[in-house]
Each structure stands twice: as C-alpha cells, then as structure tokens.
Inverse folding.
C-alpha cells in the first residue's frame, strides 16, 4: 500500500518523509497518485508553518495525529486545481535539483579532503 511518513516530534514536526524514523506517523493511501498529492499537501503545510500552531509541549514540540488529519482534510478539496498541480510539479523539479546539488557538494567536500591529504603527504615527504 503506498505510504509516506510525517514527523511528529521536534521543531520539524509535520515534515513529510519518504523513510520511517522514530517519532513519525505513517500516512497510507489507496494509490501512488493520492500519495503524491498528499505528500505535497503536507509538504506545503510544513513549509508554510501551518503545523507550528498545532504543536503542543513545552520542551519537545509534538503534533497529535488528529490535528494533522484535520489539517490535511481541510486542504484536500483544493488539491484538484491546476495551480496546485503546477506548484507540485515545480516543487518536484526543485527537489530533484536540490538532491543533485547535495551530491555535487558531497563530491566537492571529498575532493577537497583528498587534495588536502595529498598536499600534507607531499609536504611531509619533501621535508
């Protein structure tokens, strides 16, 4: 059954996740298309800060599953419009670009480390 996860504790509570982690809810859907739509609805709510007023707790913010369910249900009706579909498409494209840039940054960091190690090794050999 298609599903994704929603972080329920901490300052990122409400963030949709593709992989399970401690302190998260699972949201199961009937189809991949419903999963995609709901994932991006939750993502938009999270990025817009709509989960912040729903958080309770004085030390670690916590979301209750019913509050998340109610917020998702109120937004579900508007998910059929073309503007939302366009926004979802753009968000998906940006997410792919973000993943690519993260890979490039990791490669750059590894390359910098290798160059630094080689420079030190060469310097020590010459002395």
């Amino acid at each position: 059954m298609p599903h994704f996860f929603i972080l329920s504790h901490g300052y990122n509570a409400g963030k949709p996740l593709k992989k399970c982690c401690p302190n998260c809810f699972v949201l199961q859907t009937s189809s991949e298309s419903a999963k995609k739509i709901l994932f991006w609805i939750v993502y938009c709510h999270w990025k817009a800060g709509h989960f912040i007023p729903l958080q309770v707790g004085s030390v670690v913010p916590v979301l209750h599953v019913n509050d998340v369910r109610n917020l998702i249900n109120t937004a579900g009706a508007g998910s059929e419009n073309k503007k939302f579909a366009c926004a979802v498409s753009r968000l998906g494209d940006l997410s792919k670009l973000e993943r690519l840039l993260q890979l490039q940054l990791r490669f750059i960091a590894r390359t910098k480390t290798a160059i630094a190690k080689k420079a030190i090794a060469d310097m020590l050999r010459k002395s």
The chain is about 60% helix and 10% strand.
